[in-house]
């Protein structure tokens, strides 16, 4: 395909065929009723998708769990050392306690990466040192101990969990034979440890696994949404590109018929043949992207159709003000189509989720860019709903296609704003 486009371009230049995407006269779309700009016309999602970008920003504020573990490990280790060297409980074996406590406290930093190893080794090590010497009664050490047990209970496979728990029980019972342990104290402690660990695995472990599964499903749904939107964009751009190439082929054929035999005639004939071949290949390629319910055959809309779109949205119940700044000029048909779709999706989202509100659409023609701003002052939005609408996904894909910028989120004074910059090269 790149070779095809190169030959068409070179041939068109040789035959003095000049065409611009803006000269193709992309027609206005067929008349749409207000019902077609209803809350379900262009975006099947709900408030959860409308606020998707806001959620992403909030997620960025969350602390990474691994980083949090490192911080907790460092803090607990420092607290343990302070407790050992400046406390009153371990005056007879401070050096021993200062060394062994690091095993429990520092293990917090790697418990997510090695849950089976940490969850088994730390309790077994604690039981061993407790059997050999008296428990130094350090408060920080049990924190590492219980963090290790939590890792074993929640983040390990069933086989690893059974093997680790068996080793811990054996080590606890064996510690009763040492100078620091007794059967009277060891058995109740072991029973409580086993029971609590089983409960934690049953309750929290299952919940985390379900949450992980739900997260994977959301990721799959997000990827499917991106693929679906890209296919939709490809279908729409196919119509634009096919029209451009068709015009080139028609012009080349017309020019060939009036040019005498010679080099130029042959070049034009080559351009015409390659153009027809490219159209055939394009139809086959995009035909695979077509869904069972074919898209409308109406001409693709552009920026001139925004006034009609605003009128339809007003009839659907959302007051819309359209403002255009700068000198209107012809732009590449693909950019005009993407700009129209972005405004359409933003207004549809506002119509669905903004409640009693007003919306404003600003279109600014810059020297080398097209700026879009769609804002509303709505405050109402259904809460607790879950869905998979593709409005913001489509905006992101269309903006990325032309190397632009997208900023979407809640406004400081209330409402929602979508700001887009599309470079014009």
Biggest pleated sheet: 5 strands, mixed
Uncertain residue ranges: 1-61, 381-389
* CATH superfamily membership of the domain at 301-423: Histidine kinase-like ATPase, C-terminal domain
The overall pLDDT average reads 74
**CATH second-level architecture of the domain at 301-423:** 2-Layer Sandwich
- The total of helices stands at 13
Class of the domain at 301-423 in CATH? Alpha Beta
How many beta-strand segments?
5
Percent helix among the residues? 55-70%
What structural class do helix, strand and pairing data support? alpha+beta
Q: Estimate the strand proportion.
A: 5-15%
Describe it.
With 425 residues, this protein is an alpha+beta fold. It has a domain at 301-423: Heat Shock Protein 90 (2-Layer Sandwich). It has 13 helices and 5 strands. Strands 1-2-3-5-4 form a 5-stranded mixed beta sheet. Residues 1-61 and 381-389 have low confidence and may be disordered.
Blueprint of the fold:
Elements: H1 2-14, H2 47-50, H3 52-61, H4 65-86, H5 94-106, H6 115-132, H7 140-154, H8 158-175, H9 183-258, H10 263-287, H11 306-316, E1 320-325, H12 333-353, E2 359-365, E3 369-376, H13 391-401, E4 405-410, E5 416-423
Parallel strand pairs: 1-2
Antiparallel strand pairs: 2-3, 3-5, 4-5
Helix pairs in contact: 1-10, 4-5, 4-7, 5-7, 6-7, 6-8, 7-9, 8-9, 9-10, 9-12, 9-13, 11-12, 12-13
């Amino acid at each position: 395909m790149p070779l095809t486009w190169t030959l068409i371009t070179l041939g068109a230049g040789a035959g003095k065929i000049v065409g611009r995407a803006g000269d193709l006269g992309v027609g206005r779309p067929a008349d749409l009723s207000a019902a077609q700009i209803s809350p379900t016309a262009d975006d099947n999602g709900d408030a959860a998708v409308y606020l998707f970008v806001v959620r992403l920003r909030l997620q960025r504020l969350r602390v990474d769990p691994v980083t949090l573990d490192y911080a907790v490990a460092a803090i607990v280790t420092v607290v343990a050392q302070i407790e050992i060297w400046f406390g009153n409980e371990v005056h007879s074996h401070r050096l021993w306690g200062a060394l062994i406590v690091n095993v429990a406290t520092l293990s917090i930093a790697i418990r997510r990466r090695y849950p089976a190893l940490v969850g088994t080794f730390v309790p077994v090590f604690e039981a061993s040192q407790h059997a050999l010497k008296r428990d130094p009664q350090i408060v920080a050490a049990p924190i590492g101990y219980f963090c290790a047990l939590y890792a074993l209970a929640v983040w390990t496979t069933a086989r690893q969990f059974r093997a680790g728990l068996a080793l811990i029980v054996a080590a606890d019972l064996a510690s009763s034979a040492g100078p620091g342990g007794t059967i009277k104290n060891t058995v109740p402690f072991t029973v409580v440890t086993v029971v609590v660990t089983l409960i934690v695995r049953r309750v929290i472990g299952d919940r985390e696994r379900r949450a992980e599964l739900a997260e994977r499903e959301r990721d799959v749904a997000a990827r499917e949404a991106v693929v679906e939107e890209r296919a939709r964009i490809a279908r729409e751009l196919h119509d634009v590109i096919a029209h451009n190439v068709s015009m080139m082929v028609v012009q080349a054929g017309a020019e060939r018929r009036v040019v005498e035999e010679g080099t130029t005639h042959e070049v034009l004939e080559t351009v015409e043949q390659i153009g027809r071949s490219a159209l055939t290949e394009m139809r086959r390629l995009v035909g695979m992207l077509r869904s069972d319910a074919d898209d409308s055959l109406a001409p693709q809309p552009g920026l001139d159709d925004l006034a009609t779109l605003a009128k339809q949205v007003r009839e659907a119940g959302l007051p819309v003000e359209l403002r255009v700044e700068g000198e209107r000029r012809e732009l590449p048909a693909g950019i005009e189509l993407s700009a129209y779709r972005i405004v359409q999706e933003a207004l549809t989202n506002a119509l669905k989720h903004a409640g009693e509100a007003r919306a404003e659409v600003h279109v600014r023609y810059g020297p080398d860019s097209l700026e879009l701003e769609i804002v509303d002052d709505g405050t109402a939005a259904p809460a607790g709903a879950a869905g998979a609408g593709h409005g913001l996904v489509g905006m992101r894909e269309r903006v990325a296609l032309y190397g632009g910028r997208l900023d979407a989120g809640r406004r400081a004074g209330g409402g929602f704003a979508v700001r887009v910059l599309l470079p014009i090269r």
